[in-house]
Design a protein that fits this description.
The structure holds two protein chains of two kinds. By secondary structure, chain A is mostly helical. Chain A contains nine helices and no strands. The N terminus of chain A is likely disordered. Chain B is an all-alpha fold. Helices cover about 65% and strands about 0% of the residues of chain B. Chain B contains five helices and no strands. In chain B, α2 runs antiparallel to α3, α2 packs antiparallel against α4 and α3 runs antiparallel to α5. The longest helix of chain B is centred in the N-terminal third of the chain and has 27 residues. Classes of the chains: A mainly alpha, B mainly alpha. The interface between A and B is large, with 44 and 44 residues.
Chain lengths: ~200, ~190
Amino acid sequence: VHGGEDGGPTRRELISRGLVAGALAGPGALAGAGALAAATAEAATKTDAELLMPVLAAELLAVFAYKTILHSELMSAAAQRTAARMLPQEHAHASTFSDALLRLGSTPLPPLKTVAEADALLAIHRIPNRLAHLRTERDCLTILVRVENVLAGVYYRAIPQLSDPHLLGLCAQVLATEGQHACVLNLLLRPHDIDRAVPSSYVQ
Amino acid sequence: VVSEDPPAASSRRGLLIGAGAAAAGAAAAIAACGSKGASQTTSGATPSPASLVDIQLLNRALELERRTAALYTATVPLLTGRAHAAGKLFLAQELAHASELTGLIQRAGGKPRMPRASYNLGHPRGPHEVFRQLIALENAQVAGYLDAIAQLSTAKARAAVASILANDAQHLSVALLTLGRNPIPAAFVTGRI
């Protein structure tokens, strides 16, 4: 816990994770064509390191969420097995982009340490569920699906602006993986609802 | 079995050389024939060499999308239950991708390649063979998009291709699940599983 009034992290700490800016750049956060154009223009001037910081922040949130949920043992064996396959993949993504940031001369963000910190980030991303209030398998899967959707969003926003072709390719590969995770988790939530599992022709 | 292999991957440099030649050819044709002289891949005014590369890459992707849509069209009636529902949904999504690619090609000043009159899709026997074939085509699409994405010259095209390839990767996951295989086989999707 890092000194917020309620025992949670301060706004300064959240900003340092690059998540406030990342969340506000999301399409849901800005209304109107003018605001969207301004956000696009701003994004166009970002460096690859600036674009990857929210990516890494979201991956670290995902790693923390998967670990917490697996540790809770609230899910069935099948869901537990599936989430256990996804966690090392999120680790691999975080590690890849942490290394990339180092190569670009930036200091990667450290892993999240507390549930309060992770829950504050979920709130910033407008995810209403909290890791502190997990009760059922449905709670667990719902948070994971929503975190996967956040991940898809940060990759989708970074991809058009990245200048390094290798990083661009990596982000496209990971966007695809996160899309797969969301699809498979949704099928665990609603096994017969393919329309909810693959809800759009475009993952973004 | 599908009659032709997917188009081989090409470097942007190679495509640019080809595009430069195409642009030069188009310019020569324009000089010789007036306003009627346009390359077969372009819709009117000669696109820039960068746009010509985009048009070539997107037309290759379009061809694969159409082939995959043809396979879904042919095989959905063979499927039942959840597999049938998935096939129907994925067919609609492949058609949406084809439409998006068509728009991107036209905005780049190109002509979308015409669909083939027919596709030789072989005679898959039963749902398992259908899904194996779908996995092969979805993989080819994902690999093709990943090969193309860094070569595309516009942010809009890169974003569209990324979101399409991720959707194709979801189709892959569902097809793998249907065959009882691991639906998330790799941390980095490559289209080669």
